[in-house]
Amino acid sequence: MAEKILIIEDDTTIRETLAEVLEKQHYIIHQAADGAQALKLIKKHNSDLILLDLRLPDMHGLEVITKIREFDHHALIVVMTAYPEIRTAVSVLKAGAYDYINKPFELEEMKELVRRSLETQQLRTEVERLRISAAQPAPIEGFIGDSPPFLEMLEIIRKVAAAGRVPVLIRGESGTGKERVAQSIHNLSQRADGPWVTLNCSAISEGLLESEMFGHEKWAFTDAKTRKRGLLELADGGTLFLDEIGDLALSLQPKLLRAIETQIFRRVGGQQEVHVDVRFVAATHRNLEAMVQVGAFRQDLYYRLNVATIDVPNLRSRQDDILPLAHHFLKQAAITIGIHNAQLDPSVYKLFKAYAWPGNVRGLRNVMERALILSGGAPIIATHLPKEIIASTLPKTSGSFEYLTLAEVEKSHIQRVLMTNDGNKSQTAKQLGITRLTLRNKIKQYALDFDDVN
Ligand SMILES: Nc1ncnc2c1ncn2[C@@H]1O[C@H](COP(=O)(O)OP(=O)(O)OP(=O)(O)O)[C@@H](O)[C@H]1O
Ligand SMILES: [Mg+2]
Description:
This protein is of the alpha/beta class and 454 residues long. It has 3 domains: 130 residues, 3-Layer(aba) Sandwich (Rossmann fold), CATH 3.40.50; 164 residues, 3-Layer(aba) Sandwich (Rossmann fold), CATH 3.40.50; 130 residues, Helicase, Ruva Protein, domain 3 (Orthogonal Bundle), CATH 1.10.8.60. 47% of the residues lie in helices and 13% in strands. The chain contains 19 helices and 14 strands. Strands 2-1-3-4-5 form a 5-stranded parallel sheet, sandwiched between helices. A 5-stranded parallel sheet has the order 7-10-13-6-14. A two-stranded antiparallel ribbon has the order 8-9. Strand 4, helix 4 and strand 5 form a beta-alpha-beta unit. Helix 2 packs parallel to helix 3, helix 6 crosses helix 7 and helix 18 packs across helix 19. The chain starts with a strand and ends in an 8-residue tail after the last helix. About 1% of the residues have low confidence.
């Protein structure tokens, strides 16, 4: 976009000549013959550069600079003066001008000064932009992950957070971090200072849920001895998080839809309309679309919620996040339990990465807490982990556990110990109470599959 330059000069010849020359350079030029007119134009046009004559009929240039700076910190000001006193130069720079040029000046000289000034202007804008984006906080402290799918999701969170009151639907498997995502949206939005209210639609019965959500009037039902404000009212000015929206009773869905669309609702047992300003963020691990198809969820509500959708990737699809998350949860658990220096032994890294983590991030957190309790502070190794994590890396055996042959058990066990030792044979042999030679023979006999270290 072309840059905008305002020329403030009472001498018509100089002003118009300058305007003509600079217009040819493809700048957008505005002109003012006195201070008052100049101030009006600046407010209107947001100039990038101002060329200012010091001697104006209605006010002194210094005064103009001060007045401009009261509301505009963007425009660069270059002063043109026929009185090249050092004192003047110092005072205009002090007042907030960027540079000055002595009159009379060569047009070429002026063109060059304009070009340089605007270049500086652009750099300043760029630096400012970088400063702002660097100052943007992480969505929430401790929201861990830097795998590509996770970063992609953060990017979407940022955009959605900035999108006013648009309803948001968060989808993802259980334990992937949907609530965390919802909170991040609130924290990064303009409503961050407003209330953050959560309501779990699956936790309470239909009747109670309605009065939880919308509140009730006195005597709306037998137990309602006083008027009660619902969570919708409590969330006024902020965000209402509707967790497990897929479990919301069909009978309540029209009322919720209306509240989302109009920001108006009635308390249970009430006639009076209540107006609120609430952003709705909903989450579910269910397939709402499929539910709509079988009539278990209203289509209109689904469409209303499905404007901004965030799909939270499961942990399997972001393997790079597993270990950082594991270390993070271990550290947290260590603080809670009061253990210093809790550590994850590198021998389990491979197990962690190979496991499918059906419980996702929450599952990983539970595993870490349990492992730390079992290890009592010693580095965490395979024996501190649930057996399904270890089993998942073992070759599949025929039949169920009850019918394993002794040889199969031996094979599995050797494989497991080898795995936890990262393929180190001396260590494995030692732990198994056999010689290295015996171990080598067994490896051959069972055709065990592992990364050979030594
Ligand atoms: N990226 C992450 N970094 C750190 N902690 C996380 C991250 N994602 C999730 N968690 C933590 O994992 C746990 C589960 O997250 P959350 O409750 O948000 O999941 P959810 O998808 O809502 O699960 P559910 O479907 O079971 O309700 C929480 O303790 C949360 O703080
Ligand atoms: Mg949840």
